[in-house]
Amino acid sequence: MNDPSQHKFEGEGMLGALHKFFYPPTSKYFWYRRGKVKQSPLSTKYLRFLVLTATMSVAGSGAVMFGIMLLISLMMSEWFSITRTHTSLILSAFAEHKITNITQAPMYQNASYVAEKALQHDLQTSEYMKTLISDPYFIVSWMFTAGTSTLLIYYYCASALHNQYYVDRRDEAEQWKCQPKKFPTDALFLEEQLTGCFNGFVSGFAGTGLFFYHLNYPFLKFHYTMELGWGRFMQDCCLVYLWIDFYSYWMHRTLHHRFFYKRIHKWHHRYKQPTAFGAFAIHPIEYIAFQTAGIWCAAIFPMHVMAFLVVVTGIAYENMKDHSGVHFEGTLFWFPGTLYHDDHHQYFHLNFGVTLILWDWLFGTLRQKDRHYNENTYVGEQDKKVQ
């Protein structure tokens, strides 16, 4: 069992008193407030990247997204016989709108608007823009581009974490690893890599396809401008964050029901000493189940598209870091350390949350010092003293 003292907080004054009020050191719960490693440099860069992405994309509203889409179509012009003349006409039509404030740009998915402006120059260009988002070649090429990009980013981030610790500091495991005496076998690690990367590709591929389906048959409640202000944008971020975390808690807990665990989720729990590649190394049915969290949220609640993308991307990275096996402290002050999820892999039916321990604490599944945990002891069967 891990030493409970590692979860104590040495702060003084008002901050220390407040911390002890919310996380009493004499509690039966493990609060996961401390870590052997304060933070990964990659996490700092990643947070900056998310903030920069959100700021740029929101400031540019649909114009930035439209520009990216146009650039890709220009690059693919040789593949799909899309003439550069048509592309230049579209740019002319876009410029003719006389945008003085970038936040007034037309929405990215409102391709019909741009097509109508292009119609003043060339009827063929108009027809091209009207049919572009329903062109199967264009859609599939975007799906492959997104899938490949997701795979490469996933592989880069997971490899960076892995190489920094498992390769460069393997002999110092006591200083950084959640389970310092245990490592996955080479065969299991290779399988974890292949499965995680495959699911990463599928995520980008299928997610982009679903978005194009939405452009043709709208069912998501995205908006693309900042007319509602920054306050509403931050509200959207909080909504997406809380929804996905709460949804994921209950989906994860359901998968730990005896029936679903043995048939589906046990696949993922073969990685008892997970690495960053294990974040996406799960059963296909489970992968679909978790991906629906964001889809349901966007289908039910109106929200800014970038609020959705930034939060989902951030959670995906946290999921990767939580599987890294490196004993990090939480990225943000309310996040638990990575030991929180590593204990889930080591002790199985506990700690089901993502970045909040709130749900586990409320519903009685947060790890406790006086309970017995193993793979065959499910929720509701753990109320006995540890031997």
From TrEMBL:
Which residues are in the Fatty acid hydroxylase domain?
238-365
Instruction: State the protein's name.
Output: Fatty acid hydroxylase domain-containing protein
Q: Which keywords fit this entry according to its UniProt record?
A: Membrane, Transmembrane, Transmembrane helix
Question: For this UniProt entry, which segments traverse the membrane?
Answer: 46-72, 137-157, 194-213, 233-250, 293-317, 346-363
Q: Is Thylakoid one of the keywords?
A: no
Origin species, per record, is Mucochytrium quahogii
Name its cellular compartments.
Answer: Membrane
| Primary location class | membrane
* GO terms of biological process kind: lipid biosynthetic process
Give a Gene Ontology cellular component term annotated to this protein.
Answer: membrane
Transmembrane recorded as keyword: yes
